[in-house]
């Protein structure tokens, strides 16, 4: 593969630092270094974008000591299409040169803190190397998910051939900002059983829907209800970081939601929807009417048949308490994982440094074979075996045997008996849509809710998103598909919100998925369902590879380990509407993927 996929290193830049003692004429310069007529000039010359702390106050209201200014490079040090991470003394920024113009934004992805300098710069946005989120380089706004926050922007000017950045110190420290949101102007008692928009589910689809409505100027009531007892939290981390608390996993605080007039009702499970009276009934007997409804209830574990259903210490990983209990019970004990789903495998990996033994039971011969192919699946299986995980494949559970009600053994259908003190079932999930059965909202035979391009169901004013839907996917000629990814749920929430506001937009995203096991990350982009071949470049056994999944001579998905930012680069190409042919990736020459001039 040569050096065409070699990792780019952030460039260290020496700076001339100037802490401002007084306001200067230069404070109102636009990015190109010319004096701006706007005395309330925004960073990067854009108007109306600010951090939470900034509200929307003009720059002139800030005290000079709140700012830092630095000369970061010579104007000729960077070519078009290049990015540099630069140090301003009080923090770092990402300096970008595109089409002869300089801009500066936060250098860390607000999602998990990835260094954006290692990402992909293309057509006015930078794509995160880890999980594919995209940010506009002029405004810092998030344009594709995952994540909720945008980036701060910093003022750039050119003076005597030197590139100078002026930044708010607080923004340099936070490295993220929330988009400005409208407030609710409707006068409604919080006990009133009516909401203009009712959101059922507080995962990424529901949360992004609520925030998008406010960001786009919606000023009526929004109520979001969830069967969870916590504010929205980062569920994918549960299986990777078993000891994390709900507080540590939190996506938005109660205070944040209240400040933006997003009402959250926890431990509020919907049990019925009546589309004729436009009302949702909850398990506690209460009822709420709506004008528009967004259903995003996510997945629920698939039931598994075995003897001993009442034995304790057998878990489906659903809540922070589940994860915490699994970690506690597995300490120096025997853990058994049933199922080779990503969740099950991540839990197994997380337990290897805690448990006395970790065993995995799988119905297939090789984990991830259906999703990633046999070669990649076998290489990952070998990684687990190297970390003393035992596999019992082509097998199923017959019985959970307890002693005084607590798990002691797992009996397999093959007759094998495994010692077990704690068991996690990760055999897959299905849509949590049982409560819609008599509602009139159409569901398919598997319980998925079909929606149109605007995420609307067959009922006018009733929208759905996330794991529970099949939606028209542009990457497959608008065939309706189900893609239960965390990132995709964010997209659904935004599209649904815009649809509710009468501004329908189409899904323009490349599905992006990730997993982490033993400190190694797997990244995946595209929709590989039904792939008929896998073209692998690199060394699978060394877990340093990129795998292209093809269908009828066309690349439909890509996965990699230790090859950042290749998956984000491929996502960028697929997202632009270009077709990648199988023959393009068989040669091993990836130079067509590399942007010229990127560092």
Automatic annotation (TrEMBL):
GO MF: 2 iron, 2 sulfur cluster binding; metal ion binding; oxidoreductase activity, acting on NAD(P)H
A single GO cellular-component term on record: mitochondrion
Family that this chain belongs to: Belongs to the FAD-dependent oxidoreductase family.
Coiled-coil ranges from the UniProt annotation: none
InterPro entries: FAD-oxidoreductase/Apoptosis, FAD/NAD-bd_sf, FAD/NAD-binding_dom, FAD/NAD-linked_Rdtase_dimer_sf, Reductase_C, Rieske_2Fe-2S, Rieske_2Fe-2S_sf
GO BP terms, alphabetized: execution phase of apoptosis
Protein species of origin: Hucho hucho
Name of the featured protein: AIF family member 3
Annotated ranges, domain Rieske: 70-165
UniProt keyword annotations, A-Z: 2Fe-2S, FAD, Flavoprotein, Iron, Iron-sulfur, Metal-binding, Oxidoreductase
Domain of life the protein comes from: Eukaryota
UniProt cross-references to PANTHER family, sorted A to Z: APOPTOSIS-INDUCING FACTOR 1 (PTHR43557), APOPTOSIS-INDUCING FACTOR 3 (PTHR43557:SF8)
């Amino acid at each position: 593969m040569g050096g065409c996929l070699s990792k780019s290193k952030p460039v260290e830049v020496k700076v001339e630092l100037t802490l401002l003692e007084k306001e200067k004429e230069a404070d109102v310069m636009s990015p190109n270094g010319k004096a701006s007529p706007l005395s309330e000039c925004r960073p990067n010359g854009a108007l109306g974008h600010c951090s939470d702390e900034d509200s929307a106050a003009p720059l002139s209201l800030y005290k000079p000591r709140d700012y830092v200014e630095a000369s970061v490079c010579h104007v000729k040090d960077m070519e078009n299409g290049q990015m540099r991470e630069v140090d301003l003394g009080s923090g770092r920024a990402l300096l970008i040169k595109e089409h002869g113009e300089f801009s500066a934004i936060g250098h860390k992805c607000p999602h998990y803190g990835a260094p954006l300098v290692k990402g992909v710069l293309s057509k006015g946005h930078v794509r995160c190397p880890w999980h594919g989120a995209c940010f506009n380089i002029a405004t810092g706004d998030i344009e594709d998910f995952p994540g909720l926050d945008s980036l701060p922007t910093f003022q750039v000017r050119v003076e005597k051939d030197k590139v100078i950045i002026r930044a708010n110190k607080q923004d340099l420290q936070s490295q993220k900002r929330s988009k400005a949101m409208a407030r609710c102007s409707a006068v409604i008692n919080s006990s009133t059983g009516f909401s203009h928009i009712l959101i059922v589910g507080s995962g990424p689809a529901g949360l992004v829907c609520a925030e998008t409505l406010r960001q786009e100027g919606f000023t009526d009531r929004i109520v979001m209800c969830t069967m969870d007892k916590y504010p929205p939290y980062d569920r994918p981390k549960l299986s990777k970081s078993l000891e994390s608390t709900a507080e540590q996993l939190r996506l938005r605080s109660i205070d944040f939601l209240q400040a933006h007039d997003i009402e959250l009702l926890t431990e509020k499970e919907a049990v019925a929807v009546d589309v004729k009276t436009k009302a949702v009934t909850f398990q506690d007997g209460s009822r709420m009417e709506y004008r528009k409804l967004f259903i995003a209830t996510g997945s629920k574990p698939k039931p598994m048949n075995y003897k001993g259903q009442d034995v304790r210490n057998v878990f489906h990983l659903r809540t922070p308490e589940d994860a915490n209990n699994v970690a506690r019970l597995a300490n120096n004990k025997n853990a058994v994982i049933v199922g080779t789903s990503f969740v099950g495998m991540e839990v197994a990996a997380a337990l290897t440094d805690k448990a006395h033994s970790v065993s995995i039971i799988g119905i297939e011969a090789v984990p991830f074979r259906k999703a990633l192919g046999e070669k990649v699946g076998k290489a990952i299986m070998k990684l687990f075996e190297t970390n003393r995980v035992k596999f019992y494949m082509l097998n199923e559970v017959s019985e959970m045997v307890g002693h005084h009600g607590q798990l002691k053994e797992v009996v397999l259908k093959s007759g094998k008996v495994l010692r077990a003190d704690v068991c996690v079932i990760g055999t897959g999930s299905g849509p949590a849509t049982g409560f819609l059965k008599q509602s009139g909202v159409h569901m398919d035979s598997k319980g998925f809710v079909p929606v149109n391009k605007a995420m609307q169901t067959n009922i006018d004013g009733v929208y759905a998103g996330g794991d529970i839907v099949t939606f028209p996917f542009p990457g497959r000629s608008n065939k309706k598909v189900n893609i239960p990814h965390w990132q995709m749920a964010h997209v659904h929430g935004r599209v649904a919100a815009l649809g509710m506001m009468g501004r329908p937009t189409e899904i323009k995203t490349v599905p992006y998925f990730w997993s982490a096991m033993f400190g190694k990350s797997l990244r995946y982009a595209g929709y590989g369902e039904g792939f008929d071949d896998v073209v692998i470049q690199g060394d699978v056994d060394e877990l340093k590879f990129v795998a292209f999944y093809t269908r009828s001579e066309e690349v439909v998905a890509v996965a990699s380990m230790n090859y950042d930012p290749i998956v984000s680069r491929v996502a960028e190409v697929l997202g632009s509407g270009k077709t990648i042919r199988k023959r393009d990736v068989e040669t091993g020459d990836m130079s067509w993927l590399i942007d010229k001039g990127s560092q």
